[in-house]
Amino acid sequence: MNRRVLTLLVALVPILAFGVLLSVTTVPYVSLGPGPTFDTLGEVDGKQVVDIEGPGADVHPTSGHLNMTTVSQRDGLTLGQALALWTSGREQLVPRDLVYPPDKSKDEIDEANSTDFRRSEDNAEYAALAYLKYPKAVTVESVTDPGPSAGKLQPGDAIDAVNGKPVATLDEFQGIVKATRPGDAITVDFRRKNADDGETTITLGKHPDGGQGFLGVGVLDAPWADFSIDFNLANIGGPSAGLMFSLAVVDKLTTGDLNDGRFVAGTGTITADGEVGGIGGITHKMLAAREAGATVFLVPADNCAEAKTDPQDGLELVKAENLTQTVDALKTLSAGGEPPRC
């Protein structure tokens, strides 16, 4: 064999080996980067992202955008993919254990994220209705299935009376239920969204934590309206869409535009009483918002310091502490005033 060819082949061996190493070897890192954004005033797959339906709903037209933002995650990276993402400057590599704790399976983590997302939808509804001054009711949050109330009560029902005795608060409701025993039959008067008022008789089961009867519902004091609010986004985990969902509900149920026709994006968890909480990946979400066309970004107060470390040209950062303050900030911005900023 020609000495020159042999030298070339010898030189190619480590190059080929390194190429195989890049394409086959996986690394214990996950990449985080800007994810898709969704306009909570718009549609996804032909459905309103925030759909408010019912004869009692006075829904008003909206304009502009109120976009929720997300962080993309890529797992199972090869060494080559990790290096390419890192050098792009758009992605952040973090140890996999920070995203997927080793004491939990990926399915368990995904289920927890889905549960957080569903809870954020409920909180977004309650916060918006509270802001709009809808009265509270003893509200069914969950129904155990199988259980005594399955097929008789459903999430969203407002319980008005038990055995003919009115209940206006959770304490009043629990006081009646605690006095029952397994096998007792109770009559529950309830209101259901987009339906006539109802009455049902439920035979109580055995309570797992004591001698009282088991109704098989989770209830709470919450603002209640006679129309339904549905959030039609699938495969979005975590609670960080709460603020933007609440703002969309408020915008649709009030006259005028909260955003004054602007492209507003943002993020933040929300509690049932309207407090906005911090989230992860704020700088990735800001980049996603700017690339989508946003000019205003709502930043949870707890994330303001981090947000200021990576400002995006043309993107105003408005501080969000709670729902009322955030609505007021958007109104101030629309009027040409100076909202609270990070």
Automatic annotation (TrEMBL):
Coiled coil: none annotated. Residues 235-333 form the Lon proteolytic domain. The keyword Hydrolase applies. Pfam families: Lon_C (PF05362), PDZ_2 (PF13180). One of its GO terms (molecular function) is ATP binding. Residues 135-194 form the PDZ domain. The active site is at residues 240, 285. One of its GO terms (biological process) is protein catabolic process. It catalyses: Hydrolysis of proteins in presence of ATP. The keyword Repressor does not apply. It is an enzyme of class 3 (hydrolase). InterPro entries: Lon_proteolytic (IPR008269), Lon_Prtase (IPR027065), PDZ (IPR001478), PDZ_sf (IPR036034), Ribosomal_Su5_D2-typ_SF (IPR020568), Ribsml_uS5_D2-typ_fold_subgr (IPR014721). Its EC number is 3.4.21.53. Keywords: Hydrolase, Protease, Serine protease. Belongs to the peptidase S16 family. PANTHER family: ATP DEPENDENT LON PROTEASE FAMILY MEMBER (PTHR10046). This is endopeptidase La.
